[in-house]
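Please fill in the sequence for the structure shown.

STRUCTURE ENCODING:
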């Protein structure tokens, strides 16, 4: 089991994730701003409609014991997580990650030719920054929405990026799976992002 983890949820952790991933400055700035919003936002309580049944669970979260994953190569996937040879026979694409590091990615050649992008978030930030910057933390899951949305914006690591151009139809499912073997992991990798309308 790899131990490429920072030990606390902090602004330094957010900046370290960005530095390890060699992120562009605009993404590092988004992380820093999201952390400021997280620190400023009050913890939700049962007075907030979305959280009215969750306060006992929220009080049990030990934030000081949570650790943040860093995007570094870890152990290879175990045999049971290895995609089958016919992984795309019932899917349009498959992405498998180990904690926050992509371990396998495949997308059908037909969809790729139509401009569909299905990849991990780190690759998307690096290779498709214009698409990510247009909507990530601005249209989808804004850090201002809640304390935990802001925390996700500051500390996201790994995750899935899906872009479907206008008037492109995806008939088979796209699947993203994550193998997590780290105890005490604060997983904010579910930074899903959908950029464009899909024809129906």
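FILLED IN BY: designer on duty
SEQUENCE:
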């Amino acid at each position: 089991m790899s131990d490429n983890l920072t030990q606390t949820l902090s602004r330094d952790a957010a900046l370290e994730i960005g530095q390890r991933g060699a992120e562009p400055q605009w993404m590092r700035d988004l992380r820093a701003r999201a952390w400021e919003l997280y620190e400023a936002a009050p913890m939700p309580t049962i007075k907030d409609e979305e959280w009215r049944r969750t306060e006992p669970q929220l009080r049990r979260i030990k934030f000081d014991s949570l650790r943040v994953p860093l995007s570094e190569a870890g152990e290879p996937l175990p045999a049971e997580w290895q995609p089958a040879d016919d992984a795309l026979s019932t899917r349009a694409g498959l992405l498998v990650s180990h904690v926050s590091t992509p371990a396998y990615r495949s997308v059908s050649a037909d969809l790729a030719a139509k401009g569909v992008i299905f990849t991990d978030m780190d690759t998307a930030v690096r290779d498709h920054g214009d698409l990510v910057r247009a909507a990530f933390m601005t249209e989808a899951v804004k850090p201002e929405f809640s304390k935990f949305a802001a925390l996700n914006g500051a500390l996201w690591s790994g995750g899935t990026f899906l872009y479907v151009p206008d008037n492109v139809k995806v008939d088979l499912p796209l699947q993203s799976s994550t193998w997590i073997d780290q105890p005490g992991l604060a997983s904010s990798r579910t930074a899903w992002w959908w950029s464009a309308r899909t024809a129906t």
